[in-house]
Specification:
mainly beta; Immunoglobulin-like; five-stranded mixed beta sheet; five-stranded antiparallel beta sheet; 1 helix
Length: 303
């Protein structure tokens, strides 16, 4: 009888541990373009009453993505290694993952994602599904091909194209899509901010193969972006029409692309970070590209 009680207690103990570890998923956005970075936050709450150590083994966390008919999306790679970490009792940790490199989710449609983690006991906890959508954008320009030399010194050809997407809340977003020379592989999709449906963005390519984009964000304000051939965003500025002439991009006598018909306005999200020198010019030659990490996993934090 004592042995039977012990055998019955064991699954109850495992169930108790699982019941005291909560796992849920969140997204800052629910709608994305094909190949755009699709970030999901995994929140793990520890109510076991003792420290919970995770990440000791490889592939301790995994995801499943499927469409609403239950067809599983093709897997491309495993999640990146998070490293080991410990959640103290009554705390919650959050990990962020970009699932775009992990799954083939380029076909427009609705999807749901699940996450599962393996506990030190060997048992798994699975989250409830979180739904998101992939939509097609409208092409606004013909692809513009640029050439540049990569880190190995080899000449590469790539193409930029502008796309616009409309969202259910009537917000309209502008994107730049960077592809290989055949347009069969998307290297990166770069969000350029809100725009208006009647706007026709202007774009130019400079002598260093940088892609310059000027687009209207409301009746009087314009965003100005500069993209390097590798897809990194080197310039982001906000401009206000001055009312003297049409706001446009031009190349001056020195071969620099500049904004005409507007004045620069301070903007918290501008790149590079403003300085006294930067406020007087937007010369591409003076810009250093910010470094970015793809699929970066943030360290767990207490709430």
């Amino acid at each position: 009888m004592t042995r039977l009680a012990a055998l019955l207690a064991l699954p109850l103990l495992v169930w108790s541990v699982m019941a005291q570890v909560d796992l849920d998923l969140t997204m800052d956005r629910q709608i994305f373009l094909p190949s755009e970075d699709t970030e999901v936050a995994v929140r793990i709450s520890n109510f076991t009453g003792e420290p919970l150590t995770l990440g000791q083994e490889p592939r301790w966390i995994h995801f499943t993505v499927e469409d609403l008919r239950g067809r599983v999306a093709g897997k491309l790679q495993d999640p990146p290694d998070t490293g080991e970490f410990t959640l103290e009792p009554a705390t919650r940790g959050k990990l962020r993952f970009n699932i775009t490199p992990m799954f083939n989710i380029t076909t427009p449609g609705s999807y749901r994602i699940f996450a599962s983690i393996r506990l030190p006991t060997g048992e798994e906890v699975t989250s409830d599904p979180h739904t998101f959508e992939i939509i097609s954008g409208v092409k606004l320009s013909e692809p513009r091909e640029v050439g540049f030399r990569n880190a190995e010194g080899q000449l590469e050809r790539r193409k930029f194209v502008l796309q616009r997407a409309s969202f259910p809340n009537k917000r309209v977003q502008l994107y730049a899509r960077l592809t290989d020379s055949t347009e069969s592989h998307t290297i990166k999709v770069i969000p350029l901010g809100n725009t208006v449906s009647f706007d026709r963005p202007e774009w130019l390519v400079d002598r260093e193969s940088h892609f310059h984009v000027l687009h209207r964000t409301d009746s009087a304000h314009y965003f100005y972006h500069v993209l390097a051939p590798d897809g990194s965003l080197t310039f982001r500025q906000l401009w206000l029409a001055d009312g003297t002439s049409r706001v446009e991009l031009r190349v001056n006598e020195e071969g620099e692309v500049r904004v005409f018909g507007a004045v620069r306005r301070p903007y918290p999200g501008e790149l590079p970070k403003p300085s006294v020198a930067a406020l007087s010019t937007n010369r591409v030659a003076e810009v250093q590209s910010p470094t970015t990490n793809t699929n970066e996993v943030s360290a767990p934090k207490q709430p």
